[in-house]
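Example: 4-hydroxybenzoate 3-monooxygenase.
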Amino acid sequence: MKTLKTKVAIIGSGPAGLILGQLLHNQGIDNVVIDNKSQDYILGRIRAGVLEQSTVDIIRELGISERMEREGLVHNGFTMIWGDDYQRQRIPFTELTGGKVMMVYGQTELTKDLLAARNACDALSFYDAEDVTPHDFYSESPRVSFTHQGEAYQLECDYIAGCDGFHGVSRQSVPEQEMTVYENAYPFGWLGVLADVPPVSDEVVYQHHQDGYVLCSMRSSTRSRYYLQVSLDEKLEDWSVDRFWTELKRRLPDDLAEKVVTGPALEMSIAPLRSFVCEPIRFGNLFLLGDAAHIVPPTGAKGLNLAASDAKQLSDGLLQFYNQGHSEGLDQYSSKALERIWKAERFSWWMTSLFHKLDDSAFRQKMQLSEIHYLAHSKAGQTTIAENFVGLD
Ligand code: FAD
Ligand code: DHB
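Written out as structure tokens, the predicted fold is:
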């Protein structure tokens, strides 16, 4: 058994773990990242695409924004479409929020930049680790055990950061009676296609359609990302990419349908939608970050951005502790992060409830259309959407 020591053991090498690791490393705070998958596997995951201003600022602070500045697409608005007559309204979020922008830059690309920075510095990381387990986090000497390339390791540390996503081991290691879980499952999912075809619009489009929500997004001027609301009973194997393009064009208004360029799918998947929060998100010397602590449905594009904000907040608390010797930031991590998390949970739940086909009730659909119409034509309504979309301070 090999014993190692570090200040912060980070379980999980997604955006939350890598951002936290790099923020700490840049300030000279020793940390070790442990993931149970390989770097290639991690880079193959296709997920988020839209970064809030605050996430962009964190990437800049990390000094790894060069490719994002060059290849990312700065967005100042998005379009909402609704109703049988395909009404539409652009929400000029930059104008409505005193200049805040969104950056379209794929999570895959961001992860590539974060991994490159981690690999280029002398910080220790373990990939393809097995049996990763946090221990003794209610004591002053927490540790993480794992096996790597057949060798057993004990990593002794001051703090453990659980950044291992919704299905990870960190949250599951906490005794059930120590947390309260708030959860809402939705009876539908998102069927997503990534394809090397020019996007139908140069800004993101959210469409309410009587047969289910449509989202037109992108990764670049030559790579599109589309999503269709589907029932949870749908099986991926029943969806050819041709069937996807036909259904997408059927739901979109004619002028956009005509602009859809079809092509082979680089990736096609069905993601279930879920709202989930566990409270608190600190257990002794174990902190939970990102999807390990909370999940939002993707309508509103908040998940990755929340993970980045958690990492920034915990890193600030740890810097305060190691550099100034007081633990105020760490003590407030859970309550302060949860305030922000619940606001994003509310917005994501609300946007999901507003734009998706919830059931067969014609009345509920009328209520949705009326609410969208009201929001679209009210400056206050537009501002509410805009300030939540770009991210609340
Ligand atoms: P993850 O990315 O899940 O990383 C967790 C890491 O922990 C992984 O590398 C995993 O291998 C590792 N791990 C898991 N278990 C263990 C273990 N037992 N031991 C060690 N390591 C472990 N968010 C946005 O902000 N904007 C968007 O536009 C957006 N769009 C989305 C679209 C879709 C279709 C989906 C599915 C999600 C979207 N999200 C979006 C959400 C976003 O992708 C997630 O919120 C984000 O990945 C969370 O990052 P994380 O680091 O917390 O977790
Ligand atoms: C994506 C874009 C969004 O606006 C959103 O809410 C979810 C996902 C995307 O590009 O993947």
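Residues 74-103+188-273+360-390 form a domain with the D-Amino Acid Oxidase; Chain A, domain 2 fold (CATH 3.30.9.10).
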